[in-house]
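Marked as duplicate of an earlier ticket. Keeping the data here for the record.
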Amino acid sequence: MKNIMLIVLDGLGDRPNQILSGKTALQAAFRPNLNHLIREGQGGLMTPIAPGIRAGSDTSHLSLLGYDPEKFYSGRGPFEAMGLGLEVRPGDVAFRANFGTTDNNGVVTDRRAGRSAEGTSLLAKSLNMEIDGVRFFVREGVEHRAALVMRSQGLSDKITDSDPHETGKPVKRVMPVSPEGEFTADVLNRYLDAARKILMDHEANKNRRKSGKPVANELLLRGPGKAPDLMDFSEMHGMKGAVVAGIPMITGIGGLLGMHTLKPRGSTGTLDSDFTSKLLAAADLTKKYDYVLVNVKATDVAGHDGDAIAKRDAIERIDRAIGEMMENVDQDLVIAVTGDHATPCSLKDHSGDPVPVLFRSRGALTDRSQFFDEFSASAGMWRIRSIDVMNIVKEMADRSEKYGA
């Protein structure tokens, strides 16, 4: 049996961009190592979740790990919270959060508060409180990110976000989407009102004003959910698994599945991440674990920023890191590379476009694939969904079971 590494370049897929002479960031990038891998293996196109679905990173990663999100997904909040080290107990409701900036009328002027982490640990601690028997726990994450956990009896995740998901719009009041969510929505709105007063006059925000950074005066919430009951990865697939990532949501998923999680030194989850350190750490883990998933967030960050040049440059740095990694792994290692979804720079958000995928395994079939990009991938043999990836890599690693007699 062979071991497996899946490299997920978050938000990899893109669309032609005038700044890159009509090419995608992946096409425009110098990517000799990715091209070499696809020439040694098989290529194609992968549809995250299902055709036309604008997948989130949480649902697509669950799917890539072989867990159908239609059966197992309960909202991104629990994964984010657990990845930041917050305990999520049965009955808790957890949220993804941003420290954002609003004007005097409550209109969002920056959903990411300048992408600055200055003072966010102090801000998060100040927001831990109790209202009507409901305890609230906040933990800061990378840059502007955070997570919130509500703890009490009778809570429901059947509520809406407070995050309007775009600038120029007011913060939303949380609303129940079913009668069981009425109490949770009410107490959460009162909590957010109290949080605004604390954040407005907080010493950390006074320091942000002095340093010219946008204040972090709003906690924008989205993705409410309760912790799902998931079978351990080892029981599900018969393999010892590990996850290497710089963002809490991905390590949170891995932790919930009983996988070993690692955030290597220099792994920031941003454009300045040390890709070489991350991939070399993953290579080392393949000596101890049967399956290693690596998430690289930088491509998604650049896509959301609409920065095609930064996305191209990030891909080139990732490609060089892959080259170094390949010198430090067992050449029998099964390697797959894909995106979890597309984040076109022209949209600054996820799209439902398919993304390129490659599989490389010594002794396996090869196809006509020559280049790893959105358009060249159509010459490859595969037309698959994200849920199919696990079956394919397990078969290539001689780890699949026969279906039938």
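See parent ticket for discussion. The chain is about 30% helix and 20% strand.
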